Amino acid sequence: MPELPEVETIARTLREGGRGQPAIVGARVRSVEVLWPRTLATPAPEAFAARMQGAVLHTVGRRGKFLWLDWRDAGFLVVHLRMSGDLVVVPPGEPLPRHTRLALHFTDGRTLAFDNPRKFGRVWLVSRLETVTGHLGPEPLDDALTPAAFFARLQRHRRQIKPLLMTQTFLAGLGNIYTDEALHRARLHPQTRAHCLTEADAARLLASIRAVLREGLAMNGASIDWMYRGGGFQHTFRVYQRTGAACPACGTPIERIVVGQRSTHFCPQCQKLTTCEA
């Protein structure tokens, strides 16, 4: 599943152009095709097509792992890509991707196609963005999330740190890749209980999360699935999917365990498990 850097890269591409695709801000919808009705969480296909007819795209953004497209009077088109979704701008006269489930055809001949092979992705058209994203926790790159505020949030939980960081209501945008990478940089074992972290641990972890996300953004995310093209962060992984390889910090072989039902990679030397009394 794409994480914050991958989703932000798609949003930036649609908004500004890049990755071989032009920007689509300012495009006007000529017609709509709903090729798999269950793609739409809300509204029904007929209502969706009626509301989108003639809509002009104002801007594109991201909240957590959600993409949002602001069509002003028509509302916010919110997209969750899930395991295999992608938004693709198709030039005039070219065929749509094989697994297109929803298509917005523009007056200039281009099409915005929601390519979704495994059919897990979903689309909402809502008047308020918060209708879909209101449950999300803070953005990890938001300056309002200070080390003190992050420490206070951690202290309220007794869960293992890795699954907590991946819980979108706690912190928005992190998944398996960037959590493993951040915990390694912060020298924290993925099974450490959140409330056992000290203020120094919390500050180091927040700095590490921000560092790996910014590196991922600079490299257009990670391309480790055939659906995601053009990213380069996978070439700089320290631990993720590097089982048996040498830790870049100490040379100890990277190990793989399962934490919170997710494959987890860490260095047993750099990331020793600690416990606390409370």
Bin the helical content: 25-40%
Principal-axis shape equals: elongated
For this structure, the CATH topology of the largest domain is N-terminal domain of MutM-like DNA repair proteins
Structural class: alpha+beta
CATH superfamily of the largest domain: MutM-like, N-terminal
User: Which segments are poorly predicted (pLDDT under 50) over 5 or more consecutive residues?
Assistant: none
Number of helices: 7
Order of helices and strands: HEEHEEEEEEEHHHHHEE
Q: Over the alpha carbons, how many angstroms does the gyration radius reach?
A: 20 Å
Supply the CATH class of the largest domain. Answer: Alpha Beta
CATH architecture of the largest domain, please?
Alpha-Beta Barrel
Strand content range: 15-25%
How many E-type strands?
Answer: 11
Overall structural domain count: 2
Largest sheet: 5 strands, mixed
N- to C-terminal distance = 35 Å
Task: State the main characteristics.
278 residues, 2 domains, alpha+beta, N-terminal domain of MutM-like DNA repair proteins, 11 strands, Helicase, Ruva Protein, domain 3
Write the layout of secondary structure elements.
Elements (H helix, E strand, L loop, with lengths): L3 H13 L12 E6 L5 E3 L2 H8 L6 E5 L2 E5 L5 E5 L5 E5 L9 E7 L4 E5 L6 E5 L3 H4 L13 H9 L5 H5 L10 H11 L12 H20 L36 E5 L2 E5 L12
